[in-house]
From TrEMBL:
<feature type="domain" description="RCK C-terminal">
    <location>
        <begin position="316"/>
        <end position="401"/>
    </location>
</feature>
<dbReference type="InterPro" id="IPR036721">
    <property type="entry name" value="RCK_C_sf"/>
</dbReference>
<dbReference type="GO" id="GO:0005886">
    <property type="term" value="C:plasma membrane"/>
</dbReference>
<dbReference type="InterPro" id="IPR050721">
    <property type="entry name" value="Trk_Ktr_HKT_K-transport"/>
</dbReference>
<dbReference type="InterPro" id="IPR006037">
    <property type="entry name" value="RCK_C"/>
</dbReference>
<dbReference type="InterPro" id="IPR036291">
    <property type="entry name" value="NAD(P)-bd_dom_sf"/>
</dbReference>
<dbReference type="Pfam" id="PF02080">
    <property type="entry name" value="TrkA_C"/>
</dbReference>
<dbReference type="InterPro" id="IPR013099">
    <property type="entry name" value="K_chnl_dom"/>
</dbReference>
<feature type="domain" description="RCK N-terminal">
    <location>
        <begin position="169"/>
        <end position="286"/>
    </location>
</feature>
<keyword id="KW-0472">Membrane</keyword>
<dbReference type="Pfam" id="PF07885">
    <property type="entry name" value="Ion_trans_2"/>
</dbReference>
<dbReference type="InterPro" id="IPR003148">
    <property type="entry name" value="RCK_N"/>
</dbReference>
<feature type="transmembrane region" description="Helical">
    <location>
        <begin position="123"/>
        <end position="148"/>
    </location>
</feature>
<feature type="transmembrane region" description="Helical">
    <location>
        <begin position="94"/>
        <end position="111"/>
    </location>
</feature>
<feature type="transmembrane region" description="Helical">
    <location>
        <begin position="69"/>
        <end position="88"/>
    </location>
</feature>
<keyword id="KW-1133">Transmembrane helix</keyword>
<keyword id="KW-0812">Transmembrane</keyword>
Length: 413
């Protein structure tokens, strides 16, 4: 074996590695500030601080009013404690030291307990006056800012909100205050139903509170947040997030906390519908499907849609009627119909079942709701009826009226 010395790579020690790591962190935080200072010292134009991002400097804390109050009280207490200890070190008793500090800082003006005739005592007293007054002014300024900025009102409003949420019983929990959540919350508010809104976005929660709704900031997937919203005595929960995975997680968490609560979940993809039901949802709503059905309704039955809108009815009432075997149809009178120039009472169906005439639309005139039986029908009048599908088909054959062609889930009506 040759005597040649083998060179080994240099491996830094643990202390060296930690030191270099701290330097890297220091450079990441301080380097941007150094560049600004050097840039200014060399005579360059002053940088634009309107685009300054304070997140680049995590060590710079913007004092909030509450932080100013706490900091001022802490400094004030520290000054008093140091002053008392200093007087005691100079031969004063504890009670005399406390009394002297109090009358000095608050400027009561009573006589001194002991003569302040040495330079050390006078220096200490002057320092107490200057520092104590400074800390007191700083604290009072924070308190005034606390009142002016409305944080006190915010705290009181949050406390009132918490008390209101805690008093809810048989209520609904609305998870998510987005486009769909806003509409659901507004409908519940109009119906006078108790509910609480949960959203991670503080701005949305503030918007809900300004609208007079009970709302709280939080993640609905967290058990503590659902418990704070009263899931254990809630009647229902609606998870309306645009993320199917998050909705599924909320369903699992809510079902685990309350087995009897009714859960309605929003779904974006058709494949997620069965999964959400397995996760604990009682009902799954496809927003895109409802929108598509609404568009189809407006295209093929505009007059019936106008009737529903004018009376503030749900856009899905046609589907609700279909679920119990009824249809909302538009029947247009043709020139060959025997009903032309006849009163509305002539419309009838032979059999045990019947139908209900909701309204009549004539040209550009407004829809006549609950029309009289003596109304004389004319060509191209549109009669809006609710009835069983077979009865409506029989009506069309008997009176030669034109039935609007309706597609319901791909099947012709």
């Amino acid at each position: 074996m040759s005597g040649k010395k083998i060179s080994r790579p240099f491996l830094p020690s643990r202390s060296t590695y930690q030191s270099e790591r701290m330097k890297c962190k220091w450079r990441a935080n301080v380097a941007p500030l150094n560049r600004i200072l050097i840039h200014e010292s060399r005579g360059f134009p002053e940088p634009n601080f309107s685009t300054f991002n304070s997140s680049q400097f995590p060590f710079v804390m913007q004092p909030t009013p509450l932080r100013r109050i706490l900091l001022g009280l802490g400094v004030f207490s520290l000054i008093c404690a140091i002053a008392i200890i200093a007087y005691i070190q100079m031969g004063w008793s504890v009670s005399d030291a406390i009394y002297m500090v109090v009358i000095t800082i608050f400027g009561v003006g009573y006589g001194e307990v002991k003569p302040v005739d040495t330079p050390a005592l006078r220096t200490l007293t002057i320092a107490i006056i200057v520092l104590g007054y400074g800390a007191a002014i700083y604290t009072v300024g924070g308190f005034i800012q606390f009142l002016v900025d409305g944080e006190l009102q915010s705290l009181l409003r949050n406390r009132k909100m918490s008390q209101g949420i805690a008093s809810l019983r048989a209520h609904t929990i609305v998870c998510g205050f987005g486009r769909m959540g806003v509409r659901v919350a507004e409908e519940l508010q109009e119906l006078g139903q108790p509910f609480v809104v949960i959203d991670e976005n503080a701005a949305r929660v503030e918007e809900a509170q300004q609208a007079g709704m009970l709302a709280m900031v939080g993640n609905a997937t967290d058990e503590d947040i659902l418990m704070a919203a009263g899931i254990d005595h809630a009647r229902g929960l609606a998870t309306l997030l645009p993320d199917d995975a998050a909705n599924a997680f909320i369903c699992v968490t809510a079902r685990d906390l309350a087995e009897k609560v009714e859960i309605v979940s929003r779904a974006e993809n058709h494949s997620a519908q069965k999964k959400l039901i397995r996760c604990g949802a009682n009902y799954v709503v496809m927003a895109a499907t409802i929108g598509a059905m609404r568009v189809t309704q407006l295209l093929v039955r505009p007059t019936a849609s106008a009737v529903l809108e004018s009376h503030g009815l749900s856009h899905g009432i046609s589907e609700e009627l279909s679920a119990i075997g009824l249809n909302l149809e538009e029947l247009r009178l043709t020139s060959s119909s025997p009903l032309v120039s006849k009163p509305l009472a002539e419309i009838q169906v032979r059999g045990n079942r019947g139908f209900l005439i909701v309204g009549v639309k004539r040209g550009e005139d407004p829809i006549q709701m609950n029309p009289s039986g003596t109304l004389i029908l004319e060509v191209n009048d549109i009669v809006i009826v609710v009835g069983h599908q077979n009865d409506i088909a029989e009506l069309c054959l008997a009176h030669k009226v034109q039935r609007q062609e309706i597609l319901y889930r791909g099947v012709k009506g």
